[in-house]
Amino acid sequence: MKSFKTLKSIITPLDKVNVDTDQIVPKQFLKLVQKSGFGKFLFYNWRFGDDEQIKSDFILNNPKYKNSEILVTGDNFGCGSSREHAVWALMDYGFSVIIAPSFADIFFSNCFKNGLLPIILSEKIVEKIQHETGEVEIDLENQLIKTPSEQISFDIDLHKKTILLKGLDDISQTLLYEKEISEFEKNSTIPSVL
Amino acid sequence: MGKTLFEKIWDAHIVVEKENSPSLIYIDRHLVHEVTSPQAFDGLRMNNRSVRRPDLTIATMDHNVPTNNRTLPILDQTSAVQIQTLEKNCKDFGIKLFDIHSSNQGIVHVIGPQLGITLPGSTIVCGDSHTSTHGAFGALAFGIGTSEVEHVLASQTLWLEKPMPFEIRVEGKRKNPYAVTAKDIILSIIKHIGTSGGNGTVIEYRGQGISDLSMEQRMTICNMSIEAGARAGLIASDEKTFEYLRGREYTPKNYESLVSLWRENLKTDHDAKFAKSFTLHIDDIAPQVSWGTNPGMTCDVTESVPFPEDYSKGDPNQKKGAEKALEYMALTPGTPITEIKIDRVFIGSCTNARLEDLIEASKVVKGKKLSPHVSAMVVPGSQMVKKQAEELGLDKIFTDANFEWRDSGCSMCLGMNPDILSPGERCASTSNRNFEGRQGTGGRTHLVSPVMAAAAAIAGHFVDVREMDLN
Predict the structure, then answer these.
(1) pTM of the model
(2) What is the ipTM of this complex?
(3) CA dist list (Å): B23 to A168, B16, B44, B164, B275
(4) Taking a C-beta distance cutoff of 8 angstroms, is the pair B403, B370 a contact?
(5) Domain over A6-187 is classified CATH 3.20.19.10
(6) B200: helix, coil or strand?
């Protein structure tokens, strides 16, 4: 996994609560068997109308936000299905940071497996950042969001922070515990299926 | 201090525990399907890794399989590729697969319990959020993303932060259990606690209202835990649980000795503490109908479509959400729910497509005809459910009433196969999500129980099923 570096970008405000993963990537695009190429399907039904016509009133279609890497949105972002395609689509489109007052559990966990940084801030601060038009810097190491007018600190679990900063591959870390896993299996009371 | 059931299962599965970091938790059962697994198997191949415990892993295809004419090739090329990819992956990695022609094929959360693969006290994962269904058996079961699927395939473990235990008590007795179902109980709960009310928690459903339910009804409750945002939902096992699993195809040989262990240990201690608690009294609850675009946007069938300001109780974001939902659903506040006309009916999904669901719905349909402007389909949760239903003659009851009778799969719950709504169509659906476009771009979903869906199919609009004579 790619490690997370400091980034500077304008923000894209997506003023909606309970954005579910069916909106992030509609199901008709879940049939690919690889991880790449999902960006074009991001928020598909909001970005495109019938015949793939671009809906100009949707924020992502405003050219101003074309190179934005930071999405700022409402409560409970990523609720619904467990599809990791939602994270792949956000990243493939170009987002590296999502700021919201809260995230759904599975989506939140999926972010860290792919190097996407979800930042939780109070509703009041999120609203303030949504109105920020200048460039915003995200400094994960120091847990700071630097706007043209102020610095906002954010909390992140140390373990998760390390994973992102170092771009750690979970599985190779886990396999170091081979002895413990085998030991557990010896004592397990739950039998095999077959 | 005592422990909750969830904490007991958690503690029994810790492989590695470190302070202030996630724990490494052992996974007893891994269920795999075609949509969220291809990238995981690819990851294994790229790193030259094998599947650690194929004997704890079971696969089926359910999300995008066609539900009719299975003898024909699959027309949608991308679906066909995904299905072939699963076949190849299972073959290459030695995983037992119930393929599209197997009599054990079905929605992964329906076949797990039906085959005796789901067991009390076990940890169960699947790359699907409705894995919470298996919690009905006193298992800790939850949905995971594709990276975690790969992690479990490679190591049979997951790094997890411990969720908080959340107690939901369901107290009282329903006056008419045929009309007010498990679906109405869980929709009522989500209506009260909201779609993020359970975030960061594992719900334990308790109380008389739960112990009175059959196993299949309990699965409906646990299935929708994720719609309240919870990581998992579970119900302590009891004699009904043990009886349900007895003698199934994959029930373990030493089952009775396991039952003795479970009977003794698998319950929340009297002095255990929950982080949160909520109580629902069900003596007087009505059948529920969702009116909006998330499962929390639900009301009684006797009510009217709410005004956003009433629904939001002063929260401007909720108000905005409700306005947007009503616009998408093309509903006017103040319209009685029973005056909402429908175009389609879907009886299916891992929430409500087990045998009991179909039996109950058939009682409403028997001897009647579908409303002329409605089309309706019944999609059994598994091929085994389909066979059992046919043995009871349910297929005939439905087809006589002009319903379509299909093969099993996720079907129009999420519309990954050809079973979808057209833009603007309104559907009474027994599934679990009424998100925008979930059942087809522009489609409008109302979540209801199987009997409410069946009653709406006959009437052409929502009706209070309590007013129907079901005898």
Answers:
(1) 0.95
(2) 0.93
(3) 17, 6, 23, 14, 19
(4) yes
(5) yes
(6) coil
